[in-house]
Design goal:
The chain has 299 residues and is an alpha/beta fold. Helix content is 40%, strand content 20%. It has helices spanning 14-23, 25-39, 72-78, 115-132, 150-162, 168-174, 193-204, 218-222, 249-269, 283-294, and strands spanning 5-6, 49-60, 82-87, 93-98, 136-139, 181-187, 209-216, 229-232, 239-242, 273-278. The chain has a five-stranded parallel sheet with strand order 5-4-6-7-10, with helices on both faces. Strands 1-8-9 form a three-stranded antiparallel sheet, with no helix packed on it.
Length: 299
């Protein structure tokens, strides 16, 4: 996976980026609120699956579910194993991991905002929906615990804009997963596949489920450059110059597609949801997919 950016894209000072993002909190919130208004999901609290008496829904069986929960009659009808969920079980909390590693600062001329800014807006919008539904939510690496309500959302919003450098390695080391939690991981996932798999399996091993929101700049998807192009790596001493970059385009696009497929297959194997979002596409589509998954639908 190519992990470089064209030299035409100037390096951003991380401290200055943080200051700009902090000052941009109101605009980010306005964009998040606009997203919420546009999808109009019929906001309400997610009904809680549990050990109560009232039936809620059938959902596909996963390896983490006890076999005693399987509804054999419903499974026979659908030719797939399903479990019967009931309401009023222990409430779940939703934890967000917003990748704030240096990769996420990239923005090409094909996009209006960086991956990080787009991710921040989507995370804020999702948390706003959860707040309006009375749900508990928190930001991995910043929130001491998951909370609910307007005060919690205000604190969460400042965490989102202030957090920097919290990449996959930091998240995997710091976050202590707890059962009955759901995780929303928002990243470009430009990490070695084995590190991504280890992190997801660690979370799933505690009984957590989740959602992968895979972000990418359109230039990272298509590699639209031509002619002699110099790419800068993530460290100052790393760079790559290609004399005819278009000659590598087909191979690059295949590798990108293969990485997408790997993430999607890994998510499916763990009963997680997956959605790909390029930053030149409508953000509402990604938010709708995320909200549907959090409600228990197919993401």
């Amino acid at each position: 996976m190519l992990r470089a950016r064209p030299i035409q894209q100037k390096n951003r000072d991380v401290k200055r980026e943080a200051e700009l993002l902090s000052s941009a909190l109101p605009p980010l919130l306005l964009q998040a609120e606009q997203l919420v208004r546009n999808i109009n999901p019929g906001i309400h609290g997610r009904r809680k699956a549990g050990s109560g008496e009232d039936f809620w829904q059938f959902r596909p069986y996963s390896q983490q579910d006890p076999s005693s929960d399987i509804d054999w009659r419903q499974s026979a009808k659908r030719d797939q194993l399903y479990i019967r969920q009931k309401e009023l079980e222990t409430a779940e909390s939703v934890w967000f991991w917003l990748d704030t590693g240096s990769n996420m600062l990239f923005r090409s001329e094909l996009a209006e905002s960086s991956k990080k800014t787009e991710a921040q807006i989507l995370v804020l919008a999702a948390a706003l929906l959860l707040m309006q539904g009375g749900e508990n939510f928190g930001l991995a690496g910043a929130s001491a615990r998951a909370s609910h309500g307007p005060v919690a959302f205000d604190r969460f919003a400042h965490f989102v804009t202030d957090q920097n450098g919290f990449d996959l390695e930091a998240f995997s080391k710091k976050q202590a997963a707890s059962g009955r939690s759901r995780y929303v991981l928002v990243s470009d996932f430009l990490y070695p596949p084995e590190e991504i798999e280890a992190t997801l399996k660690k979370l799933s091993g505690t009984g957590c489920t989740g959602f992968l929101l895979h972000m990418a700049d359109p230039a990272e998807v298509s590699l639209p450059y031509s002619g002699r192009t110099r790419f800068e790596g993530l460290k100052e001493d790393l760079s790559l110059t290609l004399g005819k970059v278009e000659a590598y385009r087909d191979d690059y696009q295949k590798r990108f597609s293969d990485h997408q497929a790997l993430l999607k297959d890994l998510s499916k194997s763990l009963s997680w949801s997956y959605h790909f979002h390029a930053t030149d596409q409508p953000a509402g589509t990604a938010l709708s997919a995320l909200y549907t998954a959090l409600q228990g639908g197919n993401g």
